[in-house]
Design a protein that fits this description.
single chain, 695 residues, alpha/beta, N-terminal domain of TfIIb, Rossmann fold, Dimethylsulfoxide Reductase, domain 2, 7-stranded mixed β-sheet, 23 helices, 28 strands, 31% helix, binds iron/sulfur cluster, iron, 2Fe-2S, 4 iron, 4 sulfur cluster binding, formate dehydrogenase (NAD+) activity
């Protein structure tokens, strides 16, 4: 615990970790943080916090921080420290050379959830306005891009439907593919309060997460311990019960949804092959348990679905998201408190990075680049001709780079080498590029392949906003001077100016003013309003000046809700004699994502390595004992981890986290991805596991 001195003043800001988006008072003595105290009236946390936000901010002043820009001609050369002017000028000249030599399609940008909304906005603006392409993507590509797609298709908006507080009105809580205790701890505590009050709990997860048997008072009524990769089959089985047992709320469906789409879906799920009995063997879940869970969801009162990456990171991630929306519409569990479809977005600003147009097919506010009116609006505001062709997604950029067609990358706050699948493919692509610019706090794994390093500013050193999983826009406030001299948006605008496209902002608030002017769902957002209200949930406009806690109340954003037939297609990642186990991945409470921040705090002592969970039956078969080193081999690669023997995982399934670069979890994950969005299938990798000698 880092607490020293007596604070002299405090500044309210927002946690830079998970998608709960807790407010904190940074209590300061001069430029030193004395402690972080959760803000009593914080919109998302109401005075609560978890171990990360409360104690794990030491990375911001860690000795590993790089504070001087660096350049090098080749990744084999040593880094050369230079001033900002030289670094910016070198990066601009290289990108200009690449544009002339290979064309604009050879250049793109990647943003991250670690960026503020304002930083994401100026980065996508730079790529679009300077280079005339839409090659800009964000880390949501590898986590919640199926949420963006699936909810837009069914409900009309790429975001969760509820406020977190809504759970206090739920009679039934249905968690699919999420582990809130570890991933969203403060919201998990709120959920537990509601469960202690008597709400029912259904969990669908291949692994026994904490909430399955948290305490004598908090236990899942039903744990659907399905095989990894079978979510769509589960959703169909539940829908089959709801349809064939007469549990559909037809009056709601008739009034609020496209009836024809409902009929097509109803007739599909009613088929015998979608019954729990027909799918039980594929899922590994008892049919009667599925029937009971479906009845509880449909008839147990106000029922809310919460889901996470266990839904999205699959080859049918988007299909499952649409299937979940189907369930909510069919049972009228949408459009009021206590119900809804709630993606638990993992990172602090993953919602915002998508909202701000860091998508190759969408401008800010989820408007397609091919829409002439939207393009004309941005062309007029930005003074440049813009492309109507969707650009490259991250995996497309990597594929094109491997083919020699993509040469220049501006990567802000994202570590694609550690966080994207099939590390070998990522590093090969980066090696093929001629100018990789990394903007980050630390020399991360991606920076090993960079030619320019722009030192970034931590969340304590900049102004801006983050948007959490409930669409809540919260202020990030600067409490100390940037150690590198600049806030991140200033670096991006300096690069843009060097590329011949100056952007005129004096403060992050002016970027938000431009966002508000060009984005209907942000029309009423300003730093002044955030100062007055603390936070606000979009849509925030003339009609909803104080924001929108619950969406789709009287009608869906798309007008009528639309059902989609969700046909189960088994993953192509199959087990066989050579790769007999399925590896699935997740996270733990004290670490965060690729660990760049939490590994540089005192938390490291609690979970210093990623481990492999394996069932006692599978361990015994292989002669593996607790703590043994085990080799894990997949079709993509191999790595070594220490074994933990536990019945939390089922027979035939192993599990690990991906917080430590040396553990190489993504060396073994494959290129398989969601059919609609290319979100990687992190949750299903066929592997062999065997005991190896001590490293
Ligand atoms: Fe930060 Fe999430 Fe913990 Fe809140 S729950 S303190 S946002 S990591």
């Amino acid at each position: 615990v880092i607490e020293a001195g007596t604070p002299e003043h405090s500044v309210t800001t927002t946690c830079a970790y998970c998608g709960v988006g807790c407010s904190f008072d940074a209590e300061m003595k001069g430029e030193e943080v004395v402690r972080m105290t959760p803000t009593k009236n914080g919109g998302a946390n109401h005075g609560h916090s978890c171990v990360k936000g409360r104690f794990a901010w030491g990375y911001a002043t860690h000795k590993d921080r790089i504070t001087t820009p660096m350049i090098r001609k080749s990744i084999k050369d040593p880094w050369q420290q230079v001033g900002w002017d030289e670094a910016i000028s070198y990066a601009a000249s290289e990108l200009t050379r690449i544009q002339k030599q290979y064309g604009s399609d050879a250049i793109g940008g990647i943003t991250s959830s670690r960026c503020t909304n304002e930083e994401v906005y100026v980065t996508q603006k730079l790529i679009r306005a300077v280079f005339g392409v839409n090659n800009v993507d964000t880390c949501a590509r590898v986590c919640h891009s199926p949420t963006g797609y699936g909810l837009k298709q069914t409900l009309g908006e790429s975001a969760g439907t509820q406020t977190f507080d809504s759970v206090m009105h739920s009679d039934v809580i249905f968690i699919i593919g999420a582990n809130p205790t570890d991933g969203h701890p403060v919201f998990a505590s709120q959920m537990k309060r509601r469960l202690r009050e008597g709400a029912k709990l259904i969990i669908a997860d291949p692994r026994e997460i904490d909430l399955v048997a948290n305490s004598p008072h908090i236990r899942a009524d039903y744990h659907l311990k399905l095989r990894p990769g079978t979510n769509v089959a589960l959703v169909s089985a539940l829908a089959h019960v709801i349809v064939t047992e007469g549990l559909v709320q037809e009056a709601f469906v008739k009034e609020r949804c496209e009836w024809d789409s409902f009929v097509e879906w109803r007739d599909f799920v009613a088929k015998p092959e979608n019954s729990p009995e027909a799918l039980a063997a594929e899922l590994g879940v008892d049919a009667e348990t599925m029937r009971a869970a479906a009845r509880m969801y449909a008839t147990g009162g106000d029922a809310a679905i919460y889901y996470g990456l266990g839904v999205t990171e699959h080859s049918q991630g988007s299909t499952t998201v649409m299937g979940i929306a189907n369930l909510a519409m069919a049972t009228a569990n949408i459009g009021r408190e206590g119900v809804g479809v709630n993606p638990l977005r993992g990172q602090n600003n993953v919602q915002g990075s998508c909202d701000m147009g860091s998508m190759p097919h969408e401008f800010p506010g989820y408007r397609h680049v091919a829409d002439d009116a939207t393009r004309a609006l941005f062309e007029s505001a930005w003074g440049r001709s813009l492309s109507k062709e969707p650009g490259l997604r991250i995996p497309n950029m990597l594929d094109e780079a491997s083919e020699g067609n993509f040469k220049g990358l501006y990567c802000v706050g994202e570590d694609i080498v550690q966080s994207d699948p099939n590390t070998q493919h990522v590093t090969h692509a980066l090696e093929n590029m001629e100018c990789v610019i990394v903007q980050d706090l630390f020399l991360n794994e991606t920076a090993m392949f960079a030619h320019v390093f722009f030192p970034g500013a931590s969340f304590l050193e900049k102004n801006g906003t983050f948007t959490n999983a409930e669409r809540r826009i919260s202020p990030v406030r600067r409490v100390m001077h940037p150690k590198n001299g600049y806030e991140d948006w200033e670096v991006t605008t300096k690069l843009s100016e060097a590329l011949g496209y100056p952007m005129q902002y004096n403060h992050a608030s002016e970027i938000m003013d431009e966002i508000a002017a060009l984005t209907p769902t942000f029309r009423g957002v300003s730093f002044k309003k955030l100062d007055e209200m603390g936070s606000v949930q979009w849509p925030c406009d003339d009609e909803h000046p104080d924001g929108t806690p619950i969406m789709h109340i009287d009608e869906f954003v798309r007008g009528k809700g639309k059902f989609f037939v969700t046909r189960y297609v088994p993953s192509t990642e199959k087990v066989n004699a050579k790769f007999p186990l399925i590896l699935t991945t997740g996270r733990i409470l004290s670490q965060y994502n690729v660990g760049a921040q939490t590994r540089r705090t005192h938390n490291t002592a609690w979970h210093p390595e990623d481990i492999l969970e394996i069932h006692p039956h599978d361990a015994e078969e292989r002669g593996i004992k607790e703590g043994d080193w085990v080799g894990i081999v997949s079709r993509a690669g191999e790595t070594v981890l220490r074994a933990k023997i536990t019945e939390r995982v089922q027979v035939g399934v192993v599990y690990t986290t991906f917080h430590h670069p040396e553990s190489g979890a993504n060396v073994i994950t494959t290129d398989n991805s969601d059919w609609a969005t290319n979100c990687p299938e992190f949750k299903v990798t066929a592997v062999q596991v065997s005991r190896v000698s001590q490293l």
